[in-house]
Specification:
- The chain is an alpha+beta fold and 106 residues long.
- It has a single domain, classed as 3-Layer(aba) Sandwich (Aminopeptidase).
- It has a 5-stranded mixed β-sheet with strand order 1-2-3-4-5.
């Protein structure tokens, strides 16, 4: 699969990508200087291709590059972080991170 062209649609507050005519996205909200990752949606037709993971990595990388602390409410992103506990731990809001030790691999 070719690299995904993920865009930040700030009006809809979503990181978005179109694949085979279908729109996949990771919804977020800006809150008190943080970015809250809320929900990932990948249409069934294009599922199983790593698109949700790519959206998660893109959002976390965006937060790191813009020095925006992250709060995670999206179950998919939380699960991804649990599987990759050290890759983006630095971008999690420290208060949020300390309150959610389940994001660390046990």
């Amino acid at each position: 699969m070719e690299p995904l062209a993920i865009v930040n649609n700030t009006q809809q507050q979503q990181f978005q990508v179109r694949v085979d005519g279908e729109l996949a996205y990771l919804e977020y909200r800006m809150y008190k200087g943080d970015i809250a990752l809320l929900h990932t949606e990948v249409p069934e037709k294009i599922g199983g291709r790593g698109i949700a993971s790519a959206l998660a990595v893109h959002a976390l990388t965006y937060a790191r590059e813009h020095k925006i602390p992250v709060m995670v409410y999206c179950p998919f992103v939380a699960g991804w972080l649990k599987k990759h506990p050290n890759e983006f731990r630095d971008v999690l809001d420290p208060k949020y991170r300390d309150d959610h030790p389940n994001l660390q691999r046990q």
